[in-house]
Amino acid sequence: MHSTEKENIIRLLLSGQEANIALGLQLARSQNISIAEFKKTIEHLYTWMYKYEPDLEDSDWVIRFLLKIHTITEIKRIKVSLQEIPDCIYLCRNLQYLTLPENKISGLPATIGCLRELRKVNLFKNQLTRLPVEIGKLTNLESLTLTLNQLKELPAEISNLDKLQFLYLAGNQLTTLPYKIGCLVQLRVLGLKGNQLTRLPSEVGSLSELKELTLSDNQLTQLPDEIRNLNKLQTVELRNNPIPDSEQERIKSLLPNCTIAF
């Protein structure tokens, strides 16, 4: 019974309505139901967001913060040595912009998949080694910046981001791309400079909106024939790849209206 009552109380606390939050706290007290763990989670999120702990002697801080959570559309923490994104980030349901460049974040929580309103994520120059498959649930995402991390591969689920327009992956350790990359039909810019790519999947030919493709400083020796399908492509950077002269001429013939830098 206590379990169900506790769930109802938590639901009230997360409703975003002041009257419900106050009622939830009152019920917890009157029914002697501990919500200490929940408060600890909220306190952790507060400290992570604001860099200082809440005033625990202020009995109303929980109400104010639980109301605030529902209005937060942007979190920006730049170069402050963050080492994590907490699991409880999922509480910020209306978050649209997550800007955390130049930190020390090594992984993303699976709960990031709950942030369905996210439009732009910037994790430039962190220490990410992998992405959770839940990244594929961010179907409103338009821009994803993962430049200068330590990614060795991308989950196939990234192909679900069908509103993605900008994908920046320069300076990682990618050796391949998922073949479903071609599902990113709104993609305009794909930045892959400074990885360890030896080939591109033929499915890149399905990126019909692509305008800019940066592939310098990889290990490519050729591009797939399907690259010719990218009619909107304007610039391709291929500097510092072991591409033979004959292949360079072939690439030029496939993309006659494109500016190509070898």
UniProtKB/TrEMBL annotation:
A cellular component annotation (GO) from this entry: cytoplasm
PROSITE patterns associated with the record: LRR
Keywords for the protein's UniProt record, in alphabetical order: Leucine-rich repeat, Repeat
Keyword Repeat among UniProt keywords: yes
InterPro entries membership: Leu-rich_rpt, Leu-rich_rpt_typical-subtyp, LRR_dom_sf, LRR_domain-containing, LRR_R13L4/SHOC2-like
Pfam families, alphabetized: LRR_14 (PF23598), LRR_8 (PF13855)
Domain Disease resistance R13L4/SHOC-2-like LRR: 180-252
Protein name: Leucine-rich repeat domain-containing protein
Organism for this UniProt entry: Xanthocytophaga agilis
